[in-house]
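A note from the maintainers: we've had questions about how concatenated examples are separated. There is no special marker in the raw files; a new sequence line simply starts the next protein. For clarity in this README we add a label.
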Amino acid sequence: MRPQIVLFGDSITAQSFRSGGWGSALADAYSRKADVVVRGYGGYNTRWALFLLHHIFPLGSSTSPVATTIFFGANDAALKGRTSDRQHVPVEEYKDNIRKMVLHLKKCSPTMLIVLVTPPPVDEAGRQSYAESIYGEKAMKEPERTNETTGIYAQHCVALAEELGLRCVNLWSKMQETNDWQKKYLRLMDFISRLKAME
C-alpha cells in the first residue's frame, strides 16, 4: 500500500481539491510517492474535530499516514455572541485541542510528520459584502469574525508548534505580506461576482 498524506481540517481543507487548490497541488507533487487523502469537515471547530480523531486515525493501525496537516482555527475564532457563536472555541481550548490531536497522532506513529497550519486572515469587508449580497437588509451589522481575533488564534498555533517541535505554516501572516491579498488569495469576491451574474 502506498504511503498516505492526510489533510485534516475544516472547509478550507475540504475544498482543497477544487481547481487550483492546495490539496490538488500537493497530490500532483507527490503523485509517484504517496496518496493525498482529504479529511476536511465544513463548519467544524477543534472541539468537534476531536470526536472524529479516533475514527480517522485509529490506534494500532498498520497503515498510519506518513504525514498529516492539522488545519483548524477559522471557525474556532468566530466571535462569541455573534452570528456564528456556536462555532466559537476559546483560544486556550483551541490550543489544547490541537495539542490533543498532535499527541494522538504521535501515538499512532511516532515518526509521522505533523504540520500545523494557522487559520488564514479574514477579509472583513469581503465577508460583509457577501452577507449583504445574500441577505440584503437582514445581513449582519457586526462582523462574526475579525482579522485581529483570528490573528490571536494563529499566534497560539505558532507557539504550540514551537513548543512541540513541529513544523508550522503561518498562513495568517504569510498571506498578508502580499499587497491586495484579499483579492489574490481569497475566493469570496469571485463567488459574489458569480452570484450577481446569476440574478
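[label: protein 2]
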Amino acid sequence: MIRLATSQDVRNIATLLEHKALALQATGSTQWSAYLEQDIETLVQEDLDAGRLFVFEENDQLLGSVALLPSMEWDRSLWADTEGLYIHRIVVSDLAKGRRVGKQLLDYVIELTDYEGETLRLDCVASNAFLNDYYTSVGFTYQGTYDGFSTYEYERIEATA
C-alpha cells in the first residue's frame, strides 16, 4: 500500500536512505555519499514538511519511499526554470528487491501529477547507466546532462478526441 508518510515514518525512511548510501559506497559509487555526511533524519523531515512524502508499506513494514517536492535549490542548479514537481530520494529496501516497489512508487506519483496537470521531473547521476535506461523505459524523456547529472521530464501522452 502506498500512503502519505507521517512523522512516525521519518526514522525508517532515513534508515533506508542510509543503508542504500552505504551499499552504493561499498560498490565504489559516490552516488548519495553526501547523505552519509549529514543528518539524514533532518533531511527526511524537511521533505515531509516541504512537499509530499510517500511510503510503500506492506504488513506494517516500510519497504520504500519517494519525495515529491516543489523546486528546491538543487533543482534550480540543474534546470533553467522552476516548473513542476520533482522526484527526490526514491529508495527501496533490499527486502523488497524484485517486487517492483520502485516502479509502483513512480507510477503513483506519475498518476498523481497527471491528475493535477503538473510537470514531473527527476535527475540521476549521468554515469548510472541502469537508472538512465530505466527512467526512459518508464516514460521519462531525457532533457540533457548538467554538471554530471542527467535530467528527465515525464512525457504525458495527451488523449486525443
